[in-house]
Amino acid sequence: MTDKLWYGGDYNPEQWPREVWDSDVRLMQRAGVTVATVGVFSWARLEPRDGEFDFAWLDDLMDLLDSHGIRVDLATATASPPVWLARKHPEMLPVTADGVRLGVGSRQHYNPSSSAYRRHAARLVRELAARYGTHPALEAWHINNEYGCHVSRDYSEESAAAFRVWLERRYGTVEALNAAWGTAFWSQAYGAFDQVGVPAAMPTYPNPGQLLDFDRFSSDALLECYLAEKEILRELSPDVPVTTNFMGFLKGIDYWSWAPHVDFVSDDCYPDPADPDSAPFGALARDLMRSLGGGAPWILMEQSPSAVNWRAVNAPKSPGMHRLHSLQAVARGADGIMQFQWRAGRAGAESFHAGMLPHGGEDTRVFRETVQLGEELASLADVRGTRCDARVAMIMDWDSWWALEQEARPASLDYVRVLAGWYRELWSRNVLVDLVRPTSDLSSYAAVLAPATFVLSAEGSANLAAFVEGGGQLLVGYQSGIVDERLHVHLGGYLGGLRDVLGVWIEEFAPPAPGSLSGTPAPALRISGLGEGGASTFAEVVRVSDAEVLATFTGPQPHGGLLDGRPALTRRRSGAGAGWYLATQPDNFGAVLDAVLEAAGVVGVEAPAGVEVVRRGDRTFVLNHNDHAVELTLAGEPLALPARDALII
Length: 649
Ligand code: GLA
Hints:
Elements: E1 6-11, H1 18-31, E2 35-38, H2 43-46, H3 56-67, E3 71-75, H4 83-88, H5 115-132, E4 138-142, H6 157-171, H7 174-181, H8 208-236, E5 242-243, E6 245-246, H9 255-258, E7 266-268, H10 278-292, E8 298-302, H11 321-331, E9 334-339, H12 365-379, E10 392-395, H13 398-404, H14 415-428, E11 433-436, E12 447-450, H15 458-469, E13 473-477, H16 499-502, E14 504-510, E15 526-528, E16 539-544, E17 548-554, E18 567-574, E19 577-582, H17 589-600, E20 611-616, E21 619-624, E22 630-634, E23 637-641, E24 646-648
Parallel strand pairs: 1-2, 1-9, 2-3, 3-4, 4-5, 6-7, 7-8, 8-9, 10-11, 10-12, 12-13, 13-19
Antiparallel strand pairs: 14-16, 15-17, 17-18, 18-19, 20-21, 21-24, 22-23
This protein binds alpha-D-galactopyranose (GLA).
């Protein structure tokens, strides 16, 4: 195993003549590359015909990298099946909800439940593991690539059959399934499991329980593919760690259920350089990765050295930005910084995606930054293995994400946007946050935030209530605790099992008024008790049973005064702890957060806007994301930072 930070990227030498490889390894050495990810899309090259393997080129490559001191993150190559396989087994191609079978000629053209795909993938992995499982260059196994990136839901017959098996395992009897899905509604009752199908295109709203279970099943079906490969690697290459690259906030996969199965978490992250919030958004994804691994170091497996090729506008990273994003990842727990890709491609759909070594070659800004970053990461090797310490947690839960964004729901809310809005305020206060689930162990936190935690089981609410009773500060946001894990509504007033600990319940919803047909905007909500500003978003009619009212909606309001005088923010103290309820997203959310953090005794780090300060181990990272220089005082010391520059103290 390397004792350095990982630094390098996807390396696809099979796309280049052999003589280019020699210049690649020479330049990799110059750039301080420590690890290369190899073989991600090499299946057709490794197995050009059914059962005929060609490993000569990969033998050569592994030895070449080894002799230059570059470690290998070896992919199992199962992410893009060869054409011959798809032609032989067209039933392995994915089918969309509209019944369209997808074609060959891009990538990820397999349905996860396909037995032909799984059988052939397993055979390839067995060959690779037997051949390279003890190779001296092998640092880690990289299973598949970005599971679910393009195809996370498949509606084929094979998937439908697998879905039925999954349901039978979950419910046992068809009566239990009918009860869970509430099929008394619209005459949807099933008489046997073999009558159940996937939620393909339908005349109108599909059954919510069926949709949610299909989301869960689809995540599990991909996980089965991963686990099948992992089992082979464990058998033939037991000492080499195994990962698969996650994709941050990918809706299709519940990474909480995947994370226990990777030896280390790894992530691909592509914040838009043109988005003014790219720094907080990147930070949020990094905090999620650290949290998925329970605080353990993780690897940033892919990021672009500059522009990508897949946005409407592919903005380049401004000078210094790539370094800042990389150091941000290290600060937030990463033990490696990898990019897509080493050498910018010459042909194929990603030719215009940046590489560490651009089309222009060595005499380019991007390559110079590649070399500088390599030097800096080499000097940071001793951060490896150190951890970050967060006292605040925020709930992030795929069930709530999936359910909140179904078509049949109370409000049109974008779950990740709601989370990112709360997170941004924490980020700007330099308060480090872990992401958790409602049922996670919360004992190490002083404050827990629960934005739009739409799905809340009895177990989850009991856990959150116990956190408050144990002295914690819990801030719950609108659209939480509306349904249980089967999407059955909590009766007697929304908030379910949180009603007592919050001392409030929700009687009605008041989504933002859409404005008039002629374009007159709807009036914003006014709030008293939170300083400046109101709210222009979702609100709820709160009924207080046992809580203090800290802020109220004041008239005139949309909805004919429905909200007038109603609570916008409440608090119920319980010993040293308190349950806070926020019934809307106020413009001045910062004031709410400050009050909760103060009660929790959590103090951030004061810094100018756009300056990120993070502590990992005994190092403090100060990152100036601004296009201008800043001055600040840190622990009594005055500091000056040029535009888009960083200091590590
Ligand atoms: C993903 C994939 C890579 C490449 C990049 C482009 O992260 O894993 O193979 O397609 O996107 O940004």
